[in-house]
Design a protein that fits this description.
Blueprint lengths: L15 H28 L3 H17 L5 H19 L5 H16 L7 H28 L7 H9 L3 H17 L22 H25 L5 H19 L2 H12 L3 H26 L5
Helix pairs in contact: 1-2, 1-3, 1-10, 1-11, 2-3, 3-4, 4-5, 5-8, 6-7, 7-8, 8-9, 9-10, 10-11
Length: 298
């Protein structure tokens, strides 16, 4: 088994098992893009959005078989590009990651059966791109913005009504309960009207700052662990856990599905059941999104 860009892999992407998982990975990506195209068309019903749905649907059907996967991936790329351009400047960050993943699969997918070297190269490029997203996300939080000292979490807990904000208030109020202090009440202020003083106690800031720094530490260290042979498996499992916690804690389900799918390429025991589960999760998230877009309860 050759040593690639990420050292000795836990799963050889060109082995029979590895190629089966790669095919499931491709199927999952095409289904995710179809879901994104349907949601975009429901929110913005135009000729281009409808064509995007048709392209994505053809990408799923054509790309389901490995011998036509490249054609299906080309259609998937066009559909995803249509969504990314149409949503600009509100395009989701991970849409660009998915564009890079699909473009890599299109560029390196074998033109003939048995071209195992191309399979392995595609997986390693995808790995490097995705690991860099986690790593540099953590580095940027260290150097820029208002994340490291808990400011981002504090603003959400005090003034927001998102899934993340609700869970942050659970943590803060759990700390307050231990201290015998009244729970935190959500302010009616909007981000534009946020006052100079924050309705948070010193203990609240300690909880939020600790959580922020633990997440930054995980985003920086876990990808680095994956780059080593000794701590690779621990890093992989840690990244899967981090993705699941972020998804549950903040509602970032879409990126969690993509990130976990990439990680499963190197976790064969989990991949066998993981890809079908992620497929169901992607369809469930799309169904909830479509319900919300059509005016129903999310």
């Amino acid at each position: 088994m050759p040593v690639g860009l990420l050292g000795q892999p836990n799963l050889d992407p060109v082995s029979p098992m590895g190629r089966q998982h790669l095919r499931w990975f491709v199927r999952l990506i095409t289904v995710k893009v179809l879901c994104a195209s349907v949601l975009y068309a429901a929110a913005t019903p135009t000729g281009f959005s409808v064509l995007g749905v048709l392209a994505a649907a053809c990408g799923v059907v054509v790309g389901w078989r490995s011998d036509h996967a490249r054609v299906g991936l080309c259609l998937t790329f066009l559909a995803l590009l249509n969504v990314a351009v149409g949503m600009w400047p509100s395009t989701l960050n991970h849409s660009f990651l998915e564009l890079m993943i699909v473009a890599t699969l299109v560029g390196f997918w074998p033109q003939r059966q048995g071209d195992d070297t191309v399979d392995g190269l595609a997986v390693r490029v995808i790995w490097c791109v995705t690991l860099s997203v986690w790593l540099w996300g953590g580095v940027h939080k260290l150097a820029h913005g208002y994340y490291l000292n808990g400011e981002f979490f504090a603003l959400a807990a005090a003034f927001d009504h998102s899934i993340l904000a609700e869970h942050l208030r659970w943590l803060v109020n759990g700390s307050r309960w231990l201290q015998g202090v009244e729970p935190l009440a959500v302010s009616v202020a909007t981000p534009v009207q946020i006052p100079m003083s924050m309705p948070l106690l010193a203990g609240d800031w300690l909880v939020l700052k600790t959580l922020a720094r633990l997440l930054v530490l995980a985003e920086v260290l876990l990808p680095l662990c994956v780059l080593t042979n000794r701590f690779k498996r621990a890093g992989l499992i840690g990244l899967v856990g981090m993705q699941l916690l972020i998804a549950i804690g903040s509602g970032e389900y879409d990126f969690a599905i993509t990130g976990t799918a990439v990680l499963l390429l190197a976790l064969p025991k989990l991949a066998r059941y993981g890809y079908p589960a992620l497929m169901v999760a992607a369809l469930a998230v799309a169904t909830m999104g479509l319900t919300w877009a059509m005016g129903g309860a999310p």
